[in-house]
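Sequence design from tokenized structure. All designs in this work follow the same two-part layout: the structure record, then the generated sequence. An example of the structure record is given first.
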């Protein structure tokens, strides 16, 4: 598989390629809870009608941060989201073939990092539960207090490359969203799309992804071969 050629560093998005984070604790319920929490503090008007109806809790967080960047309100909202993500991590489903692929990639000498818009505390908890911490540690780069650095900004990818002392050309990113693709492009990193189904695969292809897999098995077989 040509995407593996020269990939000495592999940057993984978390929710999607590594696990289905919100399998048991659904994202839409978390988003609704954040909207309700804001309304209870008289901040309902900070969100547009579309944002109040969103199924994505990060849409709520970004919306408030755009209006009040760095505020105590944003800090508290982000912590609430982190706590919800931690609950979700306890019932997350591992993506099929992800665990053996991660272990195999680490075993053959590639350096791995997680580059995600989720909290690094959540990633750490999930990896520990799966016995995968050693494959990545300490290279987990997730959401920080500077929310304008969330993907599609390449900040977390650039942090990973700098920490690993890696050139962009030696790295491959595995992501499942157009924002992952844009971040990889801005960082100068090759991109391999992963989609849980054909509908999401079409979204990635439409965004410009050259290669999109609906299973990680071909990567695992190529590495083992």
């Amino acid at each position: 598989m040509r995407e593996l050629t020269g990939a000495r560093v592999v940057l993984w998005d978390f929710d999607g390629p590594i696990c289905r984070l919100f399998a048991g604790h659904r994202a839409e319920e978390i988003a609704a809870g954040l909207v309700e929490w804001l309304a209870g503090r008289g901040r309902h008007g900070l969100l547009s009608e579309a944002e109040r109806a969103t199924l994505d809790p990060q849409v709520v967080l970004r919306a408030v941060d755009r209006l009040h960047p760095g505020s105590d309100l944003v800090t508290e909202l982000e912590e609430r989201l982190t706590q919800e993500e931690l609950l979700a991590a306890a019932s997350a489903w591992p993506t099929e073939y992800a665990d053996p692929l991660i272990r195999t990639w680490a075993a053959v000498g590639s350096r791995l990092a997680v580059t995600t818009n989720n909290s690094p505390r959540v990633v750490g908890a999930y990896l520990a539960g799966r016995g995968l911490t050693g494959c990545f540690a300490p290279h987990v780069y997730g959401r920080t207090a500077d929310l304008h650095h969330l993907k599609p900004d390449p900040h977390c990818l650039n942090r990973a490359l700098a920490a690993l002392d890696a050139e962009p050309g030696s790295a491959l990113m595995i992501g499942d969203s157009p924002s992952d693709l844009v971040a990889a492009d801005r960082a100068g990193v090759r991109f391999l799309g992963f989609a849980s189904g054909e509908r999401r695969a079409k979204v990635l292809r439409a965004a410009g992804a050259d290669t999109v897999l609906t299973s990680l098995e071909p990567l695992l077989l190529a590495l083992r071969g």
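The longest strand covers residues 111-115. We note this feature because it recurs in several other targets discussed in the main text.
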